């Protein structure tokens, strides 16, 4: 299974749209993308996980790494549109308490 | 080597002459053997073409020039294949070396992380831990305190393989250095969190559950650090209930206060602990839901705790498209008195 990574830059916003599965095999590319966008001070990095169907603990590690990088570089990280299964991982690990995370909204727009 | 080369080149020439004259199968079989001997001695493809050219020139000195040139051309074309072949050969050797090194490390890890299942009257303990690859990133341990209480630790390092395994040694040594006294689980997790935070890379973390069970009272005091919830099985009601406490995984933030909660279990009740390798099991594209795990446990309630955990694993192993995604650990503790 693959992971499609689309990066859109708008002003001081970097929107990363992901589709597929995040695991040990697909993680390296995403790690690289995170490494670049989180290093710009003042940058707001928004990760859209609507089409991420599966994520394992390697994926969680990436998000922790990205979060630490935003803290060091004075940028921001936001996760949006998480599916239940992926959201559960962030809840169990307690990461939803220290990260800006929004689950997928069912039944229409916000 | 030089002798070998000359000998085989002569043989090649002889077989070639024979084939050109009679086109017999025997010569073809002969060249197959020669070719295999060449491969075994790492003779490259372009060298074989070269042998062919030389043999042909010796056999037929009057070959017309354009054919001769075409053979030189072929020789050049084979050189890249030769290089690629050599590279594969090197990689193959390296792979064998690495594999044996990892298996030595895996063996060493097994010895290092070995933990003894305590033998306690009135308590039936079963535990299984299966690595997805050679090395295991899951860890469980039992600590026997002087006051009779038992510490139960279950942990899962993010990721798999060698880095995860190395990281786990840290947890083991920290646990081993604890005094043999009853200690509140949040204190233990807090200490471990600082150790992990200081000693790992930014994207490394460990999920962990630590509990202290008192065999006399049947009380389990516990604390979770981002770990998969545990389940309490009430035998009277034949029901599983989830238990956990909120808490961040170890190694992310330096100052984390962990929470504590407790449950009391009665005769025949069970405590079930696991790592995400169990909840992330997949049968092809289908995810295994926790209720399916419960159903399997229920099927084997009549067995000992150890047989139970083994049967649960076997059940998943038997699923048609089952593939272990992550290290799989399952621990069952049953009160028998």
Automatic annotation (TrEMBL), chain A:
UniProt entry keywords in alphabetical sequence: Phosphoprotein
Keyword Flavoprotein attached: no
Alphabetical list of Gene3D superfamilies matching this protein: STAS domain
Cross-referenced PANTHER family: ANTI-SIGMA FACTOR ANTAGONIST TM_1081-RELATED-RELATED (PTHR33495), ANTI-SIGMA-B FACTOR ANTAGONIST (PTHR33495:SF9)
Function: Positive regulator of sigma-B activity. Non-phosphorylated RsbV binds to RsbW, preventing its association with sigma-B. When phosphorylated, releases RsbW, which is then free to complex with and inactivate sigma-B.
Protein name: Anti-sigma factor antagonist
Organism: Oceanobacillus indicireducens
CDD domains per the UniProt record, alphabetical: STAS_anti-anti-sigma_factors
UniProt GO MF annotations: anti-sigma factor antagonist activity
Highest taxon of source: Bacteria
Gene: rsbV
Protein family per UniProt: Belongs to the anti-sigma-factor antagonist family.
Pfam families tied to this protein: STAS
Domain STAS: 3-110
Hydrolase as UniProt keyword: no
Automatic annotation (TrEMBL), chain B:
Coiled-coil segments on the chain, per record: none
MF term (GO), any: phosphatase activity
The keyword Hydrolase is assigned to this record: yes
SMART domains reported for this sequence: PP2C_SIG (SM00331)
Pfam families recorded: RsbU_N, SpoIIE
InterPro entries: Bact_Sigma-Reg, KaiA/RbsU_helical_domain_sf, PPM-type-like_dom_sf, PPM-type_phosphatase-like_dom, PSer_Pase_RsbU_N
Domain PPM-type phosphatase: 124-335
Keywords attached to this entry: Hydrolase
Annotated signal peptide: none
Name recorded for this polypeptide: Phosphoserine phosphatase RsbU
Record organism: Oceanobacillus indicireducens
Chain's gene name: rsbU
